[in-house]
Design brief:
421 residues, mainly alpha, 4 strands, globular, single chain, 5% strand
Length: 421
């Protein structure tokens, strides 16, 4: 089969993080690999010692793939800075969430202790985090008021000339109407930056870390410490938690504005953790307007959409519906045989606005040609592409919904009075 050619490719701009001070005589790539391998062993020691060979191989190969992609873009320093910030938060007692936004898709960040969500277990796509031809960005959910301490730590570690707070976009400032933003963007650069804060246009192609205020992150950690519970050991299929959500909704969580749809979630009554992730992803204007939540609930009740056998592993968790951007990436890869980074670039092309009819038809023709070469029936491909194009209107990153779902579940677990056996 010929290579996918220009399928989804586009030029990009790469900027580098400031060099991270590694131990003497240890190069950043070696230091990062050593940290990652030791961290993965610490995180998954029991699995790696007693798991099946196939399961162990999945993790080892995934970590190797991520390290290679990081090396290809010379991003070792950026990931080491993230590791260092996570260490600082732990040492200083600053509470953080289990994972914020697309960062949950990285096994490398999980191994480094930056996130607490296993992306292999939940089927997340690393390429959705480390997007092709896009600057490196990492977001954190931390306890309110702590960002200043973290910025000072970055100043001390990397030098003030290479770290700067970013001024919000003028439209954002206008929308805030005099209120302080609940987040801080911090740009990193190997080159010397101007006096802080720098304009958002200056930071557009720079590696950036964002710290979002999250009262829930602090609340959860305080409860966990008080009750002697490791949040990561809480089972995710406790029926008492789902009964609580079905009866009370999530209105009691309104201390954090990023937790959506308390009444909606109560009415839909999630039955499992995967269900909770899906419903949080569906409670947004686009899927609600398209009534996708009704389709989802109908499918959950047993009226499944037929799934092509070659897409079963991708779409079974959402009953045949395409709900997540990661599913679009994986379906494109399954059709064309392209790598996930190229499939992610194709997804971005499909969601670009405005996408001209001629561009869409050209892209469809290229995907069809590649799919037929791989043994797909043209009629099947046409139907799948129709579904993908429709789904671009509402598909949401599963990685983002998962981080919210984890915090929501943990909070509901404490509220339900559940205990670890």
């Amino acid at each position: 089969m010929r290579p996918p050619g220009n399928l989804g490719s586009r030029p990009g701009v790469e900027s580098f993080a400031p060099p991270f001070p590694t131990p003497e005589s240890v190069a950043p790539p070696r230091f990062l690999r050593d940290l990652a391998e030791a961290g993965l062993e610490r995180r998954l020691g029991k699995l790696l010692r007693a798991g099946s060979p196939a399961e162990i191989t999945r993790y080892v190969c995934r970590l190797e793939l991520e390290l290679k992609q990081v090396a290809a873009r010379s991003l070792e320093d950026a990931f080491l800075i993230a590791w260092d910030v996570a260490r600082f938060l732990e040492a200083d007692g600053i509470q953080r969430g289990p994972g914020y936004s697309h960062a949950t898709a990285s096994l490398l960040l999980f191994a480094l202790g930056v996130t607490d969500i296993d992306p292999v277990r939940f089927g997340l796509v690393f390429e959705r985090f480390l997007e092709p031809a896009a600057p490196w960005r990492l977001a954190w959910g931390i306890e309110p008021g702590a960002s200043g301490e973290i910025v000072d730590h970055l100043f001390n570690t990397l030098g003030r000339a290479h770290v700067s707070v970013v001024e919000p976009h003028p439209r954002v400032i206008e929308a805030l109407a005099g209120s302080a933003p609940s987040w801080v963007d911090v740009a990193l650069s190997a080159k010397t930056l101007g006096p802080p804060p720098i304009k958002c246009e200056e930071a557009r192609y720079l590696p950036t870390v964002t710290f979002h205020d999250s009262r829930l992150a602090k609340t959860l950690r305080v409860k966990a410490l008080r009750e002697g519970v490791d949040l990561r050991t809480i089972p995710l299929e406790d029926e008492r938690v789902y009964s609580l959500i079905a009866s009370e909704g999530l209105g009691w969580l309104e201390e954090d504005s990023w937790v959506p749809g308390g009444d909606f979630i109560r009415a839909c009554a999630p039955r499992s953790f995967g269900d909770l992730i899906a419903l949080l992803a569906l409670h947004r204007p686009a899927p609600l307007f398209s009534r996708v939540h009704e389709q989802y609930l109908n499918c959950r009740a047993g009226r499944d959409i037929p799934i092509h056998p070659r897409l079963e592993s991708i779409l079974a968790e959402t009953f045949g519906l395409v709900l997540y951007q990661e599913q679009i990436i994986e379906v494109v890869a399954a059709l064309t045989g392209s790598a996930l980074d190229r499939a992610e670039a194709t997804r971005k092309m499909l969601t670009r606005e405005p996408l001209q009819i001629e561009e869409l038809e050209s892209l469809r023709a290229e995907i069809l040609e590649l799919s037929v070469e791989r043994g797909w029936a043209p009629r099947d491909v046409a139907g799948v592409l129709d579904d993908l194009v429709r789904a671009t209107r509402w598909a949401y990153p599963k990685s983002c919904a998962l981080g919210v779902a984890m915090s929501v579940y943990w909070a509901a677990w404490f509220r339900s009075g559940a205990t670890l056996r």
